[in-house]
């Protein structure tokens, strides 16, 4: 499908935005008027640059407050409009966005508004320009796309149609199914934005919190489906006002944006296939199908010195499987949980999660899908006799590998020699991996895992830490084989890197958390100390038997319970940015012990401050 992006989505100068859009693979752009006004290039130079880059100039925007005004005011509207139409002619553009009036409208009369749009269309037609009329969610009188369409119908002019913006429709809770009643040729343009579900005034919500498709809570697949079934033949265009995107690198944001439209296009194709029907348009292209990962294959910890992590793993019952034949890399395992400790090219690095590995049903399909999404591939040197593991780099820098799943142990483990065979113990697998995200990439990271690996958002929560509020968002596969909480560090934590208690952590599933804590402590496992106040509160919350509370307290094991089951977990520490969690899920418990998170963060913070 043809794609476009509004220059307001990107940081930088107009020429930088055009270059970034072209490099990311967009077919066209919307020119945001303030970008042109501030540009030193003439309209002719902008037009020529777009042509050299292979970009079409799809929409000039916005022209505000054009209808519902007195005749005296409308005379000034026509004067402004003629100047803009002449400018568009110099740019070689033929479509302008006219927003419903928010400031100067005094006449709440559809006939008046239609008459003024008709006259505006007549003027535009002389310049070869068409008008796309859009109902803003905060319009003074017109804030509903259905009313905007009625006014366009009354205007009854070939140069006047509607622009549909997903934010303005979905933020107001309007039913988008009525879009199918609009003839496709009268839908002049389509603008797309996702957004989180927020309770705030719609103008602030729109100006600061829009997201790219796949990152928020709007059902854009359904929305766009209605538009395509109406017969719309234009581009999918992004108009995203977001404070973060306007501060980050334009090229990176443009690639991120283009990936979001590729994900949406695939979602549209999959929906059509699931319904057993042809797509509403024959240019809707699916991505290569790739099933969600079946399990974690491994986690990799990188550091100059991993000896403290080795001591923790040994105390937790892991087995040293051996050292790699050609690299300073060691494999440890317990059950199906595999931990790689990597000291290669790690000078001055503290222990941290550098990579995660997924087991996938079809590695070749996963690779093809990643390429189609233009995800950056990671490179590591390997000898000819070694297994090739393909990887991409997530927005936070974590490398994500995948390997074909099988009932046997992965073939790459045979490259580790002079170790011991794995033995059965309490630890069975990797339960989840929690990664701390820089504030500027959290939304991009959500889209990355969602588009490339079919992980789905599963809600989020805000957790109080001693250094600020931690925002946590969870991604997972439908069968819960992969769970990945993503945490955004408070500013003071971000400034200090990994300090102040907010760290990555790897959680291992175990058969019996209490037994493992007892055995591990006997082997020297350093378990995070939990304050006595927690256990007094725990007894009040759940009315557990006294001996159960005493045992949990003696071993520093935390507890949670919901309607489906119970969750027992404890933390082991080691120097660096990584903490280690051991969890036991009973029955159908599906959470992460969210009520315990502030206690854990405070305990980790206290431990670091006294280290």
Give me the secondary-structure topology.
Blueprint: E1 3-6, H1 14-24, E2 28-32, H2 33-37, H3 43-53, E3 56-63, H4 71-91, E4 95-99, H5 110-125, E5 130-134, H6 145-155, E6 160-165, H7 166-170, E7 187-192, H8 202-209, H9 220-229, E8 236-238, H10 250-274, E9 295-302, H11 307-315, E10 319-324, E11 329-334, E12 337-342, E13 352-360, H12 363-372, E14 390-393, E15 399-404, E16 416-418, E17 427-437, H13 442-453, E18 456-465, E19 468-476, E20 483-488, H14 491-495, E21 504-510, H15 513-522, H16 532-542, H17 546-555, E22 558-561, E23 565-573, E24 578-587, H18 597-609
Helix pairs in contact: 1-3, 1-10, 3-4, 4-5, 5-6, 9-10, 10-13, 16-17
Give the percentage of residues in beta strands.
Answer: 25-35%
**What is the average per-residue confidence, as pLDDT, rounded to a whole number?**
93
Query: In what order do the strands lie side by side in the largest sheet?
Result: 1-2-3-4-5-6-7-8
General form: elongated
Overall SS class: alpha/beta
Radius of gyration: 28 Å
Number of strands: 24
Helix content: 25-40%
Give the N-to-C terminal Cα separation. Answer: 56 Å
- Largest beta sheet, briefly? 8 strands, parallel, barrel
Low-confidence stretches: 494-501
Number of helices: 18
Key terms for this structure?
alpha/beta; eight-stranded parallel β-barrel; 26% strand; elongated
Characterize the structure shown.
Helix content is 33%, strand content 26%. By secondary structure, the protein is α/β, with parallel strands linked by helices. The strands form three sheets. It has an eight-stranded parallel β-barrel with strand order 1-2-3-4-5-6-7-8, surrounded by six helices. Strands 14-15-13-9-12-11-10-16 form an eight-stranded mixed β-sheet. Helix 1 (14-24) packs across helix 10. The longest helix has 25 residues, at 250-274. The model is unreliable at 494-501 (pLDDT under 50).
């Amino acid at each position: 499908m043809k794609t476009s992006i509004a220059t307001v989505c990107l940081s930088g100068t107009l020429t930088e935005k055009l270059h970034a859009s072209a490099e990311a693979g967009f077919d066209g752009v919307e020119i945001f008027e303030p970008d042109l006004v501030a540009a030193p290039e003439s309209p002719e130079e902008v037009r020529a640059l777009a042509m050299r880059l292979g970009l079409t100039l799809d929409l000039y925007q916005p022209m505000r407050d054009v209808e519902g005004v007195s005749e005296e005011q409308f005379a000034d509207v026509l004067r402004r409009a003629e100047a803009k139409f002449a400018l568009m002619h110099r740019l070689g553009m033929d479509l302008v966005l006219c927003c419903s009036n928010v400031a100067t409208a005094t006449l709440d009369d559809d006939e008046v508004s239609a008459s003024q749009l008709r006259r505006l269309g007549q003027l535009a037609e002389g310049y070869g320009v068409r008008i796309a009329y859009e109902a803003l969610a905060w319009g003074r009188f017109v804030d509903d796309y259905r009313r905007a369409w009625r006014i366009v119908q009354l205007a009854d002019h070939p140069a006047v149609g509607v622009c549909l913006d997903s934010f303005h429709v979905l933020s107001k809770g309007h039913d988008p199914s009525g879009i199918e009643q609009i003839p496709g040729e009268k839908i002049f343009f389509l603008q797309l934005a996702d957004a989180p579900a927020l309770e705030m005034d719609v103008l602030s919500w729109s100006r600061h919190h829009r997201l790219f498709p796949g990152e928020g809570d709007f059902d854009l697949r359904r929305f766009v489906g209605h538009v395509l079934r109406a017969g719309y033949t234009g581009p999918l265009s992004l108009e995203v006002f977001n404070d973060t995107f306007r501060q980050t690198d334009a090229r990176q944001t443009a690639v991120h944006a283009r990936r979001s439209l590729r994900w949406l296009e695939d979602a549209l194709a999959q929906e059509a296939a699931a319904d057993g029907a042809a797509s509403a348009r024959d240019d809707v292209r699916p991505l290569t199908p790739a099933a969600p990962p079946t399990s974690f294959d491994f986690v990799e910890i990188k550091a100059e010195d991993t000896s403290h992590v080795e001591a923790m793993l040994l105390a937790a019952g892991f087995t040293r499987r051996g050292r790699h034949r050609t690299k300073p890399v060691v494999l440890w395992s317990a059950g199906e949980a595999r931990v790689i400790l990597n000291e290669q090219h790690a000078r001055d690095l503290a222990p941290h999660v550098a990579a995660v590995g997924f087991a996938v049903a079809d590695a070749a399909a996963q690779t093809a899908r990643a390429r189609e999404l233009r995800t950056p591939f990671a490179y590591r040197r390997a000898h000819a006799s070694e297994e090739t593991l393909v990887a991409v780099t997530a927005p936070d820098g974590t490398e994500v590998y995948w390997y074909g799943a099988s009932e046997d142990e992965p073939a790459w483990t045979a490259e580790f020699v002079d170790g011991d065979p794995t033995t059965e113990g309490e630890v069975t697998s990797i339960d989840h991996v929690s990664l701390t995200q820089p504030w500027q990439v959290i939304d991009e990271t959500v889209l990355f895992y969602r588009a490339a690996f079919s992980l789905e958002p599963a809600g989020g929560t805000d957790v109080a830490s001693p250094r600020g509020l931690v925002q946590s968002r969870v991604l997972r596969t439908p069968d819960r084989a992969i769970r990945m909480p993503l945490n955004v560090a408070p500013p003071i934590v971000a400034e200090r890197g990994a300090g102040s208690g907010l760290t990555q952590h790897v959680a291992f599933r175990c058969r019996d958390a209490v037994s493992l804590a007892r055995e591990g402590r006997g082997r020297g496992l350093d378990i995070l100390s939990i304050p006595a106040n927690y256990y007094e509160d725990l007894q009040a919350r759940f009315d557990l038997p006294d001996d159960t509370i005493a045992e949990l307290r003696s071993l520093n094991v935390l507890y949670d319970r919901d309607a489906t089951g119970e969750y027992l977990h404890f933390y082991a520490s080691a120097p660096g940015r990584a903490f280690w969690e051991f969890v036991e899920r009973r029955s159908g418990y599906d959470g992460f012990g969210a009520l315990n998170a502030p206690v854990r963060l405070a305990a980790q913070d206290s431990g670091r401050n006294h280290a």
